[in-house]
Amino acid sequence: MHRRSKVLYGMLATTLGIALTACGGNEGGGEGGKESHAPQESAAKGESGKESPVAKVEWTPALAMGQPAPGLYEPGASGGGKFQVAATKIVKGTQKTLKEGHYIDADRTLEGGTPYFVYVTYTLKEGKPSVINSDLNSGAVILDENGEKAAERPVVHSGYDEGGCPVGEVYLGWDIGESRTQCSIYIAKTGAKQPARLAWSATATTADDYKKGASWAWVTQ
């Protein structure tokens, strides 16, 4: 009787050991021996169990018309040279100027939109541009309150008519300290959001990039 109880006790211990191994023998725990990621997921979501919100990028303070942007800029179109940049005025056009200037001939999606004539002054401070009569205004963009484009430059953007951009001068070179003003037309499509800023950048590609850079408060004449 005593021998038999020992045998039963041994079998019970063995069975219990197998059961414990099946429940938690794999390293790291979890089903099928896979590592549990619950602690990491909790850390990523924070104590509340919700994902941390991405910080919203706020606009830099708006510049006034005529006020130069801080720092110097090297437009890709100029082929060299560093410029001081200052938006000087924005003139709101009419449907008549839009039609007579043939600005929408190459892009009918802009028909019926609102034209704006944007004037920006560039002063050469350093270096020497290799492209003398370059389109420096290619760095200027009209943005809505969210930093998204609120107007487009039409494919035909150098048409000239009364009430639009004046005929541009042709230059033979740049001198240090020399200033020139360029005018370009932008067209806000029908139903587009109201413009909020005129920004200028040689490198920005996203709304947040533009918000962090130089921009002028939207004021039209």
Describe the structure.
- The chain is α+β, with helices and mostly antiparallel strands.
- Helix content is 19%, strand content 21%.
- The chain has a 3-stranded antiparallel β-sheet with strand order 1-2-4. A 3-stranded antiparallel β-sheet has the order 3-5-6.
- The radius of gyration is 33 Å and the shape is globular.
Overall morphology: globular
Mean pLDDT rating: 80
Beta strand %:
15-25%
Widest β-sheet, arrangement of strands = 1-2-4
Rg (CA only): 33 Å
Percent helix, as a range, is: 10-25%
* Largest β sheet strand count, sense and barrel closure: 3 strands, antiparallel
- Helix/strand/pairing class, anyone? alpha+beta
Series of H and E elements: HHEHEEEEHE
Distance between the termini: 111 Å
Low-confidence stretches: 1-46
Q: Please count the beta strands (DSSP E, at least 2 residues each).
A: 6
- State the helix count: 4
List the helices and strands and how they pair.
Layout: H1 2-24, H2 38-45, E1 82-92, H3 95-100, E2 114-126, E3 140-143, E4 179-188, E5 197-200, H4 207-212, E6 214-217
Antiparallel strand pairs: 1-2, 2-4, 3-5, 5-6
In short:
This protein is an alpha+beta fold.
Short key terms for the protein model shown above:
221 residues; alpha+beta; 3-stranded antiparallel sheet; single chain; 4 helices
